[in-house]
Give the backbone structure.
Amino acid sequence: MKLDTAHFPANAAAALANPRLQSALAKLPGGLVAQRRAAVAAVPEFEALREEARAIRDATLSDLANHLEAFEAKATAMGSHVHWAVDAAEARLKISDVCRSANARLVIKGKSMVTEEIGLNAHLEGNGIDVVESDLGEYIIQKRGEAPSHIIAPAIHLTEADVEADFRSYHTHLNPDRTLGTPESLVAEARAVLRQKFLTADVGITGANFLISETGSSIIVTNEGNGDLTQILPRVHIVVATIDKVVPTLDQAITLLRVLARSATGQDMTAYTTIATGPRRADDLDGPSECHIVLIDNGRTEMLSSGMREALRCIRCGACMNHCPVYNAIGGHAYGWVYPGPIGAVLTPALLGITETSHLPNASTFCGSCETVCPVKIPLVSLMRSWRDRAHDQGPRTRTARLWSGTWAYAATRPALYHLLARFGIAIASAFGRRKGHFRTLPFPRGWLKHRDLPAPQGRTFQQLWKETERGVPR
Amino acid sequence: MSRESILTRIRAANTAPAQPPLKPHAAPASLNSSGAGAIGRFRTTAVAKGVTVVDVDKPAALPLAVARTLTATNLRADTIRVNDPKLCELPWHDASLAIARGAADPLDTLTLSSALAAVAETGSLVLGSGPDNPCALAFLPETHLVAIARSNIVGTFEDALAILHTRYADNLPRAINIISGASRTGDIGGRIVQGAHGPRQLFVFII
């Protein structure tokens, strides 16, 4: 998918000024936050489950090669074809090769973020294959030519009225006078249109929430059941997954599933959790005749050794974005690539390089809500901070930014000078602002106070106060 | 080759020794239940998901219970798609219901599967695919009926895995479907609507 992270500041400003987007955003994440809170409160052991989930992910990553080999061996023994791809281009080729040998003209897809990441749909369409997304949210945005704005609620940026207008313009074979005023009627229409696609598709492509080494299975979770129809009805099923999705045992997958749905939507279990193992058996009456699994690296092995290993724990629940004040204000599209929110601010630079993406780790107040709710305890704030450091060292910076950070660094590495300047600066600022307690205007940076308060210092520096506290001076 | 290059890069990055296998975990105590407690809890958690739960004394009473339930919910009852021999041999004719055997057809409105286990912690049903229970039965119709033996209602997913292990050892069937309520979506305007792609309604008959 096209990268637009370089224009993050302009995109974010446009998102803030877009009333339709703001009204769509106002509705949803708050609901997901409240639902998660209730689901977590219902399980007193939730913190222990998070810790267990983290440990499972870390232990698996520490021996990833062996777990992948075990998965491949068992999946092959159960009749699946396992393919490996180092990058997006190779993954696209391997998938289109499978489609070509299946003589595929229509591909139906379950929801999959990695296929967005590798730009699969455009590639297949370029090869003359029709691709239809079956997750309702993905279907809506595919028709609009948009990217998902949330990893589990891809059309969260649209209102009911937007969808109705879209359906009227796309489904021209239906009666133009039909009633479409409710979510129920829109869902019913999409169900009927997509059911025909399911029944005629030659290949079904799904992602995988997990790959299980001990059984050679893929696990997908969906609420709509679209992932299941995608893998049951077409003759060929292709599972597309990155190498970090592997989990050694079903037992461990249970723990991950227990934290996944609760963190994502506040459900204790998603409506459909499917453990799929190989193609249909000789005596089965349905299911695909062929099952292919494409294992993709596309930057994950670099993350293992580049200080970004902890981000590979991610199980894609979306809780970090639901709880992020920046995501809630601007939505997902402003981030400019596939993965928005805090996890996107960590993953995108890791997968695409920091040069083009340096705005993303800065799109955070470091409030830490994302870390607090992450079901696998990814230290998102310190990972974003690490990208800020690297961006400062390598990324493009304005001369003003370099001048300021250079000046500050000069002072900060000379304690005597720093104390002197701090005492001097604080004394002046407090003389000007003490009466009101905060500043109304500043000589610079202009505009800072438009959206923020700046409390006035009260006369002494933090270090002076610290020393007094150490000496036992009462405050 | 891509396979070797990926595995080599992982091994080069994993310089620290692999962490030892994790201790086998137990389900959180608050999610645990057994016996009559599990049955009661399953009823509560399933109903909370919008599932209709019906008790049936013995297998032979299932057809009549199905007919009554369908009538009570204003569902047109004529033919039910079912392929499990144990369910097919029941006296459907006595309840004025016809059955059709085989895999699900896109025109089927009503299907019946039997579940391997039901899980009290979340009100979920565990179905294993095979000739008796082709898995599209659970996804194509508007209304899905599921029969579960009272003795196969367990407390947690760990308990359900034990049932799968006894039945399949290490070779799972093509699909294990864990079903927790009817098909739903929140993708339009954030409101939950039942019956996105799969069944709008789910009925469970505890035998």
